[in-house]
Amino acid sequence: MNNLIGILGGMGPGATVDAMQKLINNTPANKDQDHIPTIAVSIPDIPDIPDIPDRTQCILNHGASPLDKMVQYLKILENAGAECIIIPCNTAHFWFDELKKRTHVEMISIIDTTCQLIKQQHLHAVGLLATTATCKAKIYQDNLSALGIACQIPDDTAQQAVMESIYAYKAGRIADAHRLLTPVRDRLLDAGVEKLILGCTELPLILQQDMASAPEHYIDATDALIKKTVEWYFAHSPRHPHHQGTPHHPIAA
Protein backbone atom coordinates (compact mmCIF):
# COMPACT_ATOMS: atom_id res chain seq x y z
CA MET A 1 0.00 0.00 0.00
CA ASN A 2 1.50 3.33 -1.03
CA ASN A 3 2.82 5.54 1.77
CA LEU A 4 1.15 3.60 4.58
CA ILE A 5 1.61 5.45 7.88
CA GLY A 6 2.47 3.32 10.92
CA ILE A 7 1.73 4.44 14.47
CA LEU A 8 3.73 2.83 17.25
CA GLY A 9 1.25 3.47 20.04
CA GLY A 10 0.03 2.14 23.36
CA MET A 11 2.03 4.71 25.35
CA GLY A 12 -0.72 5.36 26.38
CA PRO A 13 -3.72 4.06 24.47
CA GLY A 14 -5.66 7.30 24.87
CA ALA A 15 -2.80 9.26 23.36
CA THR A 16 -2.74 6.84 20.43
CA VAL A 17 -6.43 7.43 19.75
CA ASP A 18 -5.85 11.19 20.04
CA ALA A 19 -3.09 10.99 17.44
CA MET A 20 -5.32 9.02 15.08
CA GLN A 21 -8.17 11.47 15.53
CA LYS A 22 -5.84 14.38 14.80
CA LEU A 23 -4.62 12.58 11.69
CA ILE A 24 -8.22 12.42 10.47
CA ASN A 25 -8.92 16.02 11.46
CA ASN A 26 -5.86 17.37 9.66
CA THR A 27 -6.30 15.40 6.45
CA PRO A 28 -7.85 17.24 3.49
CA ALA A 29 -10.59 14.83 2.52
CA ASN A 30 -13.96 14.90 0.79
CA LYS A 31 -14.71 11.18 1.16
CA ASP A 32 -13.45 8.08 2.97
CA GLN A 33 -11.07 7.20 0.16
CA ASP A 34 -9.23 10.51 0.53
CA HIS A 35 -8.00 9.67 4.01
CA ILE A 36 -4.45 8.58 4.77
CA PRO A 37 -3.89 4.80 5.00
CA THR A 38 -2.81 4.05 8.55
CA ILE A 39 -1.93 1.06 10.70
CA ALA A 40 -1.47 1.34 14.46
CA VAL A 41 0.05 -0.95 17.06
CA SER A 42 -1.34 -0.31 20.53
CA ILE A 43 -0.58 -3.35 22.66
CA PRO A 44 -0.57 -2.60 26.40
CA ASP A 45 -0.48 -6.33 27.27
CA ILE A 46 -1.31 -9.51 25.32
CA PRO A 47 -0.05 -13.09 25.71
CA ASP A 48 3.46 -13.74 24.37
CA ILE A 49 4.06 -10.02 23.80
CA PRO A 50 4.42 -8.42 27.25
CA ASP A 51 3.63 -4.77 27.72
CA ILE A 52 6.14 -2.02 26.95
CA PRO A 53 7.98 -1.22 30.22
CA ASP A 54 7.40 2.19 31.74
CA ARG A 55 9.63 4.73 29.97
CA THR A 56 9.97 7.06 32.94
CA GLN A 57 10.95 4.28 35.35
CA CYS A 58 13.63 3.12 32.95
CA ILE A 59 15.22 6.53 32.49
CA LEU A 60 15.03 7.68 36.11
CA ASN A 61 15.41 4.46 38.08
CA HIS A 62 17.24 2.13 35.68
CA GLY A 63 14.14 -0.02 35.29
CA ALA A 64 13.48 -2.43 32.44
CA SER A 65 14.19 -0.85 29.07
CA PRO A 66 11.28 -0.58 26.62
CA LEU A 67 13.62 -0.59 23.62
CA ASP A 68 13.35 -4.28 22.72
CA LYS A 69 9.55 -4.22 22.90
CA MET A 70 9.35 -1.04 20.85
CA VAL A 71 11.60 -2.63 18.23
CA GLN A 72 9.33 -5.69 18.21
CA TYR A 73 6.27 -3.53 17.58
CA LEU A 74 8.22 -1.46 15.05
CA LYS A 75 8.83 -4.64 13.06
CA ILE A 76 5.10 -5.43 13.13
CA LEU A 77 4.45 -2.08 11.44
CA GLU A 78 7.32 -2.51 9.01
CA ASN A 79 6.23 -6.02 8.04
CA ALA A 80 2.68 -4.74 7.50
CA GLY A 81 4.01 -2.34 4.88
CA ALA A 82 4.36 0.94 6.80
CA GLU A 83 6.59 3.38 4.94
CA CYS A 84 6.64 6.09 7.58
CA ILE A 85 6.37 5.46 11.33
CA ILE A 86 5.51 7.88 14.11
CA ILE A 87 5.46 7.44 17.88
CA PRO A 88 2.87 9.52 19.79
CA CYS A 89 4.90 9.42 23.01
CA ASN A 90 7.49 12.07 23.85
CA THR A 91 9.42 10.10 26.46
CA ALA A 92 9.84 7.17 24.06
CA HIS A 93 11.90 9.49 21.86
CA PHE A 94 14.76 9.02 24.33
CA TRP A 95 15.33 5.89 22.19
CA PHE A 96 14.44 7.49 18.84
CA ASP A 97 17.92 7.25 17.32
CA GLU A 98 18.22 3.60 18.35
CA LEU A 99 14.81 2.83 16.85
CA LYS A 100 15.74 4.53 13.59
CA LYS A 101 18.76 2.25 13.33
CA ARG A 102 16.48 -0.81 13.59
CA THR A 103 14.14 0.05 10.71
CA HIS A 104 14.46 0.68 7.00
CA VAL A 105 11.50 3.05 6.78
CA GLU A 106 11.11 6.76 7.38
CA MET A 107 10.48 7.96 10.95
CA ILE A 108 9.31 11.41 12.04
CA SER A 109 10.39 12.72 15.45
CA ILE A 110 7.84 14.47 17.64
CA ILE A 111 10.72 16.32 19.35
CA ASP A 112 12.38 17.64 16.19
CA THR A 113 9.04 18.57 14.67
CA THR A 114 7.90 20.49 17.75
CA CYS A 115 11.19 22.32 18.15
CA GLN A 116 11.15 23.37 14.50
CA LEU A 117 7.60 24.66 14.93
CA ILE A 118 8.73 26.75 17.91
CA LYS A 119 11.57 28.17 15.83
CA GLN A 120 9.18 28.98 12.98
CA GLN A 121 6.96 30.87 15.43
CA HIS A 122 9.98 33.01 16.45
CA LEU A 123 9.59 32.17 20.12
CA HIS A 124 12.45 32.90 22.51
CA ALA A 125 11.29 31.42 25.83
CA VAL A 126 8.95 28.47 26.31
CA GLY A 127 7.84 26.32 29.21
CA LEU A 128 7.77 22.54 29.17
CA LEU A 129 5.11 20.31 30.65
CA ALA A 130 6.23 16.70 30.26
CA THR A 131 7.12 13.57 32.18
CA THR A 132 9.94 13.81 34.68
CA ALA A 133 12.01 11.53 32.45
CA THR A 134 11.56 13.81 29.44
CA CYS A 135 12.59 16.79 31.56
CA LYS A 136 15.56 15.08 33.24
CA ALA A 137 16.85 13.63 29.97
CA LYS A 138 16.68 17.15 28.46
CA ILE A 139 15.11 15.77 25.31
CA TYR A 140 13.52 19.13 24.54
CA GLN A 141 15.93 21.47 26.35
CA ASP A 142 19.00 20.37 24.40
CA ASN A 143 17.22 20.64 21.05
CA LEU A 144 15.82 24.06 21.88
CA SER A 145 19.13 25.33 23.27
CA ALA A 146 20.76 24.48 19.95
CA LEU A 147 18.17 26.75 18.33
CA GLY A 148 18.81 29.57 20.81
CA ILE A 149 15.49 29.10 22.60
CA ALA A 150 15.22 29.08 26.41
CA CYS A 151 13.14 26.32 27.98
CA GLN A 152 11.83 26.47 31.54
CA ILE A 153 10.66 23.39 33.44
CA PRO A 154 8.67 23.13 36.69
CA ASP A 155 10.48 22.84 40.02
CA ASP A 156 10.63 19.41 41.66
CA THR A 157 7.41 19.82 43.65
CA ALA A 158 5.46 21.06 40.65
CA GLN A 159 6.94 18.33 38.47
CA GLN A 160 5.67 15.71 40.89
CA ALA A 161 2.20 17.20 40.43
CA VAL A 162 2.60 16.89 36.65
CA MET A 163 3.41 13.19 37.01
CA GLU A 164 0.49 12.64 39.37
CA SER A 165 -1.74 14.36 36.82
CA ILE A 166 -0.53 12.14 33.98
CA TYR A 167 -1.00 8.95 35.97
CA ALA A 168 -4.41 10.13 37.20
CA TYR A 169 -5.50 10.57 33.58
CA LYS A 170 -4.21 7.12 32.66
CA ALA A 171 -6.25 5.74 35.57
CA GLY A 172 -9.41 7.47 34.32
CA ARG A 173 -9.46 10.18 37.00
CA ILE A 174 -9.78 13.02 34.54
CA ALA A 175 -10.99 15.71 36.96
CA ASP A 176 -8.12 14.95 39.33
CA ALA A 177 -5.68 15.12 36.45
CA HIS A 178 -6.89 18.58 35.48
CA ARG A 179 -6.91 19.83 39.08
CA LEU A 180 -3.30 18.75 39.60
CA LEU A 181 -1.99 20.17 36.34
CA THR A 182 -3.52 23.63 36.09
CA PRO A 183 -1.58 25.27 38.97
CA VAL A 184 1.69 24.14 37.39
CA ARG A 185 0.54 25.47 34.03
CA ASP A 186 -0.41 28.81 35.57
CA ARG A 187 2.91 29.13 37.41
CA LEU A 188 4.91 28.72 34.22
CA LEU A 189 2.77 31.20 32.32
CA ASP A 190 3.09 33.69 35.20
CA ALA A 191 6.88 33.26 35.01
CA GLY A 192 6.80 34.88 31.59
CA VAL A 193 7.19 32.05 29.09
CA GLU A 194 5.66 32.80 25.71
CA LYS A 195 4.04 29.38 25.24
CA LEU A 196 3.89 25.99 26.91
CA ILE A 197 5.00 22.81 25.18
CA LEU A 198 2.60 19.98 25.95
CA GLY A 199 5.42 17.47 25.82
CA CYS A 200 3.53 14.41 26.98
CA THR A 201 0.79 13.04 24.75
CA GLU A 202 -1.67 12.79 27.66
CA LEU A 203 -1.45 16.52 28.39
CA PRO A 204 -3.52 17.77 25.42
CA LEU A 205 -6.24 15.40 26.60
CA ILE A 206 -6.11 16.73 30.16
CA LEU A 207 -6.12 20.36 28.97
CA GLN A 208 -8.48 19.92 26.03
CA GLN A 209 -11.02 22.52 27.13
CA ASP A 210 -8.33 24.99 28.23
CA MET A 211 -6.66 24.73 24.83
CA ALA A 212 -9.94 25.41 23.07
CA SER A 213 -10.48 28.62 25.08
CA ALA A 214 -6.88 29.88 25.01
CA PRO A 215 -4.96 28.16 22.17
CA GLU A 216 -2.36 30.92 22.12
CA HIS A 217 -0.79 29.53 25.31
CA TYR A 218 0.08 26.08 23.96
CA ILE A 219 2.27 24.11 21.60
CA ASP A 220 0.63 20.69 21.21
CA ALA A 221 3.48 18.30 20.34
CA THR A 222 1.06 15.63 19.13
CA ASP A 223 -0.60 18.08 16.78
CA ALA A 224 2.78 19.21 15.44
CA LEU A 225 3.77 15.59 14.79
CA ILE A 226 0.52 14.80 12.99
CA LYS A 227 0.66 17.88 10.78
CA LYS A 228 4.21 16.96 9.77
CA THR A 229 3.00 13.41 9.06
CA VAL A 230 0.20 14.67 6.82
CA GLU A 231 2.72 16.90 5.04
CA TRP A 232 5.05 13.91 4.53
CA TYR A 233 2.23 11.77 3.16
CA PHE A 234 1.08 14.23 0.53
CA ALA A 235 4.66 15.08 -0.43
CA HIS A 236 5.16 11.39 -1.24
CA SER A 237 1.70 10.68 -2.65
CA PRO A 238 0.94 10.68 -6.37
CA ARG A 239 -2.44 12.20 -5.46
CA HIS A 240 -0.82 15.27 -3.93
CA PRO A 241 -0.61 17.64 -6.91
CA HIS A 242 -4.31 17.15 -7.70
CA HIS A 243 -5.79 16.77 -4.23
CA GLN A 244 -8.25 19.55 -3.47
CA GLY A 245 -9.94 18.48 -0.24
CA THR A 246 -10.17 20.58 2.92
CA PRO A 247 -9.02 19.51 6.36
CA HIS A 248 -11.54 18.47 8.96
CA HIS A 249 -11.80 20.90 11.85
CA PRO A 250 -9.81 19.47 14.79
CA ILE A 251 -11.80 18.42 17.83
CA ALA A 252 -8.81 19.15 20.07
CA ALA A 253 -6.18 21.52 18.75
From TrEMBL:
Enzyme class: isomerase
Enzyme Commission number(s) from the entry: 5.1.1.-
UniProt-listed SUPFAM superfamilies: Aspartate/glutamate racemase
Domain of life where this protein originates: Bacteria
Keyword terms, alphabetized: Isomerase
PANTHER family according to UniProt: ASPARTATE-GLUTAMATE RACEMASE FAMILY (PTHR21198:SF7), GLUTAMATE RACEMASE (PTHR21198)
NCBIfam families: asp_race
Organism: Symbiopectobacterium purcellii
GO molecular function, one term: isomerase activity
Protein name, UniProt field: Amino acid racemase
Cited InterPro entries: Asp/Glu/hydantoin_racemase (IPR015942), Asp/Glu_race (IPR001920), Asp/Glu_racemase_AS_2 (IPR033134), Asp_race (IPR004380)
Family recorded in the similarity comment: Belongs to the aspartate/glutamate racemases family.
